[in-house]
Structures are given as C-alpha cells and as structure tokens.
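re: ur question from yesterday

yeah so i grabbed the chain u mentioned. its 188 aa long if i counted rite. heres the sequnce exactly as i have it in my notes:
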Amino acid sequence: MPLQLREYQKNDFIALKNIIRKTWRYDEFSSPKTASRLADVFLSSCLANQTYTRVAEIDGKPAGIIMAKNIEEHHAPLRYRIRQWRAILSAMLSKEGRKVSGIFGGVNDIDKALLAEAQTQYQGEVAFFAVSSSVRGKGVGKMLYRKMLDYMRAHSIEKFFLFTDTSCNYGFYEHQGMQRRCEKQKTF
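ran it thru and got these structure tokens back, copy pasting raw so excuse formatting
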C-alpha cells in the first residue's frame, strides 16, 4: 500500500466526493442524484474555506483529505466560489434537493453560536477531514492530521478549532490532544 501525501488536485474531486457520500451516508436519505449533488455542495464549500490541503493517495487513488484554514490569510479563490455556487444551484433545482438541503439548514448558525460560546479568538480551523472507510485504522488519518499540525505550526497558529457531529470519531481528535469545548444538539 504505497501512500503519498500531496496537495489537492482538481482530478481528486470525484473520488473525494464519493468518500463524503459514504461517510455521511447521503444515499440513505436521498436519491443517488441528490446524494451526489449534496456531496458536491459539501466538498465545494470546504474547498472555498481552506488555505491548506493534503490528500492521502494510496495506489494512485485519493483515500482521504484534510483541509485547514489560516483565518488571517484566507481568501476563497474565485474558482472555488464559482464551483460552490454552481453546486448549490444544482442542488436547489430539484424538489428533493431543496428538501434535503433544508434539513441541513441552520448548521452555519449553530457553528457561529458555538464559536461565540467558546469565547476564544482562534487563528485557524480544521476545515474538513475525511478518510475512506477502507483505510481507517491504518494510520492514514493520523498522518494527515500531523501534516496539518505542521502547517499550523509553520504559520504560528496555536489555537484552532473544528466543527464535528455525532458521525465523527471524537476519540481520534481527543487522542490527538484536542478538547471538546462546546456542544449544541440538532436532530436531522
């Protein structure tokens, strides 16, 4: 299993979109077409919200990704914003897409409330982190996380945060030294 860590490339999009679909089980509550559109919205939004990416490539295929954001330096590239807007528009064109998107409504408000409740001035964010279920438990996530920490240190980012939900592996983050600061409950 030759593993390579590298920057995100445009041709990674479909493989990473499929990891998102499986990880968040979009196909269990929507049609395949809507699930694909939701994953497109999610990945496009994450790409617009980062200043750093590392993809774990195994045997020539993306198996995971981590994205981080240096808040002070963040300026979403126009190409990522355009892709994000297109993805959102595509999802909203169908009745099912609007309905499923509505389920996720309010998440940004919850995130803002959590940041306010934390009463901490953060310099960075783990904008996105996912590893394919086929390689979990093999150290891939730990390698991606450590590379992201190197990026944070190189940019003098001492305080950073991430938003998770109950589908995430809290134990992984706590084992890496992160502390749970605030919680809000939202049922989907």
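noticed a couple things. The mean pLDDT is 88. also The radius of gyration is 16 Å.
anyway ttyl
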